[in-house]
Amino acid sequence: ATPLVIDTDPGIDDALAVLLALASPEVDLRLVTTVHGNVDLAQTTENALRVLHLAGRSDVPVAVGAATSLVVPQAERAGHVHGAAGLGGVVLPPSPASVDPRPAVVALADLLMTSDEPVTVAAIGPLTNIALLLAVYPDAAARIGRLVVMGGSASRGGNVTAAAEFNVWADPEAAAVVFRAGLPTVMVGLDVTLPTVLTEAGIARFAAAGEVGARAAAILRQYLDHARSSYGTDGVVVHDALALTEAIVPGTLRTVRRDVVVDTGPGAARGQTLVDRRTVSASPAAIAVAEGVDSPAAVEFLVSRLVAYGDG
Ligand code: BDR
Ligand code: CA
């Protein structure tokens, strides 16, 4: 199985992404690193511990990352989307585990330097930790096998502002550092996540799949209520879980190598990922931008893996 790290800010779809990874034999979740984002760092860390415990995997180390963005603190959290405590108002049982004593970048660097096999890193929150890794441990960062980022948008505009997707908006300077680093990066942006919607019918299929399925369904149903009232959509956009699907099964998404620039200016486009869609890039620093998705197949993959929690 491919060694995997999830860098995350749980977060409803983050929680789902972690549960998906733990249900997938193709990957071996070796480390979770936490970051500020949807809610504050203390809460994302607590949520990460609790989600792992829910799945019976409190053995997976959780290392605490950045509490704030590199340059400009995030203007507001996303409690209105994810609930004040980040998991849609659902309170999961506390984990007996405590956090790893190492800061996230140290834990990440240790794993990258000691792994015999290339490590996949799924970054599904603001990119602060990955930017810090590049700055502090460039040799370790250079060993990343694949970096799958949920973030940005090539053609759909933003979801926080007209221009910016949340994870890039939350720390544009970090995203700029990561996107120009020349790492083997896949950008899973709103282009592919917005059309990938988990409906109540899908949720109902795993709602009886043991404790994990029941809790996941409860968390998602809160999000469903938000989606209905805010966007009028009849389903949950599971951004981070789609990024994990690409991390678990490379090639799930159709990608095209593009030059990508992150707008870090103070204007209305701050946090925009400016994707040059005119040509396929030959640059070694190009990003594999996800432009095509079979959404029904991706949702089926997610649902079937969650249903399997009912077997054991
Ligand atoms: C991203 O923003 C967060 O709210 C979600 O968890 C996801 O990572 C989507 O824009
Ligand atoms: Ca997230």
UniProtKB/TrEMBL annotation:
Say which domain of life the source belongs to: Bacteria
> Could you name the Gene Ontology cellular component terms for this entry?
cytosol
- Per the UniProt entry, the Enzyme Commission number(s) are 3.2.-.-
Cite a single GO MF annotation.
Answer: purine nucleosidase activity
Q: Name one GO biological process term.
A: purine nucleoside catabolic process
Which residues does the UniProt record annotate as the domain Inosine/uridine-preferring nucleoside hydrolase?
4-298
- Hydrolase keyword on record: yes
Signal peptide feature range: none
Q: Which UniProt keywords apply?
A: Glycosidase, Hydrolase
Cross-referenced Pfam families, in alphabetical order? IU_nuc_hydro
Q: Which residues form a coiled coil?
A: none
Q: Mind telling me which PANTHER family this protein's record contains? A: INOSINE-URIDINE PREFERRING NUCLEOSIDE HYDROLASE, URIDINE NUCLEOSIDASE
Name recorded for this polypeptide: Non-specific ribonucleoside hydrolase rihC
Q: Organism source for this protein?
A: Modestobacter italicus (strain DSM 44449 / CECT 9708 / BC 501)
